[in-house]
Amino acid sequence: MKKLAYSLLPLGITVGLCLNIAPASASLLVREVISNAALSIDGFGSTTNTGIIQADIPANSTIQKAYLYAASVWDNPVYGVTFNGNTLPLSSATILGPNSNPATTARWDVTSIIASSFKEGLQDFSITENGQNDGAALVVAYSNSSTQGFTSVILDGELSTGGDTIRFNFANPYIGGVFLVSLASSFSKQPVMGQHQVTVVDVTTNSTNNRRLTRSAGGADDRTSGENSDNGNLITVGGIGDNPANVDPTARPSGTNPDDEYYNLALGNSANTTPFILPGDTFLSLATRNPSDDDNVFGMFITSGFKITTTPIPEPSMKLGIFGIGAIGILLSLLGKKS
């Protein structure tokens, strides 16, 4: 596998913020807000319904939370899985809601499985689908000395293909810090003849209005090596092996799939090197739409250079109080993705 390594070193940051996350149509809900933690994220898809999914967890880490997601082949049923030798029936899963598109996505809490079996570094976990799903995603929140001051946020549900918006309101102006965003999507084939199966994402802040982050999210990036894109492996999630440098916002999936669904909003892109979020901004809005009306975006996973505490209020909103972080240094080593 090809190995990639990227360093993100936001230093000397002090932030005092309060966020109110309230999806406009309540299609992605805040599932977890985990202080002093970072995320390992990977995807799996195979028309054979069996293979491996990975986690990359540094030495001396503590597992805080782990979720396994399985997505249906659009409007077909979703099936249970066997994960690392553990049978996970559909009856033990949470089915994501609200029901905003025809797909069905199941979520299992696999914290105890990961905590009892993980080894330091990149690790394979076996997975077998007990029927034809469109793939799976594994999200692991872990903490160690290098993740202090960070926060992991896990949002899941079903984005409406016609358009959705998630807005983050800051009580105090943003003054800096890494802001990694990963999307998880199924039933999106790229490239295809005719209308591309993509999700478009636009960013709005005080300093920018409807700035294009990507017009090409989707595809089967996490399908098993050697397989052609087809029902059963149409899964992609930004994470292990992906590059947080933002995609060319004009790129289309013609011949290749340009987007790896992994973004850093504290950076710009090839069209404009200005970061998407700037010091002084007091809100961040992410607007999505799926022109082909047939992609299932079921997860958004964030690692930020903020320390966050929560004051629960009724869903779909959650109040997030963010308070100071001092000097932060982190090295994110991302190892090669299956392709």
TrEMBL record:
Disordered, as annotated region: 209-260
Domain Ice-binding protein C-terminal: 312-332
UniProt superkingdom: Bacteria
Any Pfam family the entry gives: PEP-CTERM
Name of this protein: Ice-binding protein C-terminal domain-containing protein
